[in-house]
Amino acid sequence: MTTFLLLPGAGGEAWYWHRVVPELTARGHEPVAVDLPADDESVGWADYTALALDALDGRPDPVVVAQSMGAYTGALVCAATKARRLVLVNPMIPVPGESAGRWWEATRQAEARAEAGFDGFDLERDFLHDMPDDLRAELRRVGRNQSERSFAEPYPLEAWPAVPTTVLAGADDRLFPLAFQRRVARERLGLDVVAVPGGHLNALSRPVEVAEALVAAV
Q: Which of 130, 134, 157, 180 has a CA-to-CA distance to 189 between 20 and 30 Å?
């Protein structure tokens, strides 16, 4: 049995993982989905890390799974506790001192999206395109804003943690196109990505495939 500590991206909702949790449980593992107060301007990276460790509650050798902006917290958790592996899902991969707000320009994300044919941003086209209708409505209902502080605060990690890392990238991710993810993962971590089905929110749209990819990573 493996403990999977599931960290959400922007918005911080543990709900993001609610379709993956039963899939991991059915495969004999223990998922722990973390809810973070991402819209609270008084909370920073150290607080997110502490909350994630509290949710872990002493479980040994977890696999830390971090989606999108959750990669910032995921690496910090792995630096603070002995983790078996870090799995990044459609991640924003930071470098030391780089704020999440600066990340977009530093990685040339807008340029990569334009090259892939996605100018500007459209919620339906870029985020919700592969979602069932009921999940689209639910996502709009539960969604929270991400704090300005979390985009402005420099990333405190001085070096990437010495933990085996896997990068999963949605084959149809329109926010972070697959070619973009391959380049960033190679430049920043020296890693190839594993392509998995679905878009940026594929833990919602393709939970079976995401769960299978998480299990395969370990």
A: 130
